[in-house]
Amino acid sequence: MWTLLIILLIVWLGLSILGFVVKGLIWLAVLGIVLFLATLVVGLIRGARNRT
Q1: Does position 24 have pLDDT exceeding 80, yes or no?
Q2: Whole-prediction pTM value?
Q3: Interatomic CA distance for residues 50 and 52, integer angstroms
Q4: Which segments cross the bilayer (predicted)?
């Protein structure tokens, strides 16, 4: 599970950087940031639930 989360975080980070680099694709950067944060939160919640 952690491997999948790390891969998703890297993909979302790449989309965010691409959105900021390519002029006019700010929507892609915003989408990448939102998906990055959502994946991070889901991963933290599932990780905390599995520890207890």
Answers
A1: no
A2: 0.71
A3: 6
A4: 29-48
Q: What gap in Å lies between CA 51 and CA 40, rounded to an integer? A: 17
Q: In angstroms, rounded to a whole number, what is the distance separating the alpha carbons of residues 14 and 12?
A: 5
User: How far is residue 51 from each of residues 7, 29, 30, 42, 45, measured CA to CA in Å?
Assistant: 22, 33, 32, 14, 10
How sure is the predictor about 3, in pLDDT bands with cuts at 50, 70 and 90? confident
12 in Cβ contact with 39 (< 8 Å): yes
Note the pLDDT of residue 52: 62
From residue 1, give the alpha-carbon distance in Å to each of 6, 36, 49, 50: 9, 16, 13, 11
